[in-house]
Amino acid sequence: MMPRSADYEVKLTPDHESLRHTIRDFAEKEIRPVAFEIDRNNKIPRDLLRRIAGVGLTAITYKEEYGGLGGDLLSMVIAIEEIARVSAACSTVFVASHLVSEPLNEWGSAEQKKRFLVPMVSGEKIGAHAMTEPGAGSDVAGIKSTAKLHGTHWEINGRKTFITNGEIAELYLVFARTSPPPSARERHKGLSAFMVERGTEGFQVGSHIETTGLRGSQPSELILDHVKVPTDNLVGKEGDGFYIGVKTYDRGRVDVSAQGVGIAQAAYEAAINYAQTRTSFEKPLIDFHPVQAGRDGHGTSHGTLAHLLGSIAQRSGQGVCQSRIDRESNID
Ligand SMILES: Cc1cc2nc3c(=O)[nH]c(=O)nc-3n(C[C@H](O)[C@H](O)[C@H](O)COP(=O)(O)OP(=O)(O)OC[C@H]3O[C@@H](n4cnc5c(N)ncnc54)[C@H](O)[C@@H]3O)c2cc1C
Fold first, then answer.
1. Domains of the chain, start order
2. Of 1, 132, 229, 247, which has fewest CB within 10 angstroms of its CB?
């Protein structure tokens, strides 16, 4: 059967509209005036991150018992869109931090939730998700970092790269191999995830990696040199690291798409503003037919994207949009 547009209907409630209004207002007043400075200095003031957390960016989808607001994923999408519309870098800090708080929420023990999730939901601590290595990006199963069990602690060794929030986080979710792959087809098996706190002996932030477009939220390298963490810091079960990572990316992609929609919205508004104020041949650019056609086309594309993303957020919240990876999957 052909999909119908009604299947993708996005139901925005007055609470969603009110949230958009609140976050947009906040972003215009608190972030817009310093957005250029953030880009120029390549640094986001920590106090601003605290204030962004204060409007709910770290808390929306988490349960009240962890200090969250108990909201839906669509609310989170709206909040990220609105922050990204004004500063892509600011939104990136929170999207990356969710790649730690989400798996803690899903697979963390009660003790881990108390120690790590609660201070992340309140915005007191920022997280960094450490999967990528110099030799393994898309190929998550190819990571070479290792963790070996020594009685009451794990010892982690390896090197990570491109880690967003690497320089500013207090809590790191680090993936490492805890056992060799059972076979060539099952090379994704034997990975595990660990919480590592900033300041742990042997843990070091390496070089800062320059990127364009996200200045203010630059990723960095991490060095793990005989880093010892208690066995209680293993997140989920030993060997579930690949599953935890890939399931986390299901959710992460929704947040990253929300950033894309927010950035596209900003680009669209800037283009319209320019076309209305810039005159050529003695009339504003917007009066020229090709410019109007471009405006209409981009407006429709952006509206469609935003609608599709809203629908994905709703459906993900209902468990409809999930990868088919499970613990026993084999990857060819
Ligand atoms: C700004 C930024 C922030 C980041 N933040 C984080 C972070 O917080 N934590 C973290 O762990 N990582 C982070 N990353 C790393 C990111 O996850 C990796 O860059 C990504 O996984 C791709 O890996 P790679 O760069 O090694 O590219 P590769 O995996 O080497 O891919 C190179 C090219 O080959 C293509 N390719 C790869 N495999 C296939 C295939 N099977 N079929 C077809 N095409 C393929 C890719 O699409 C790509 O075009 C960040 C990266 C950037 C740029």
1. 128-242 (2.40.110.10)
2. 1
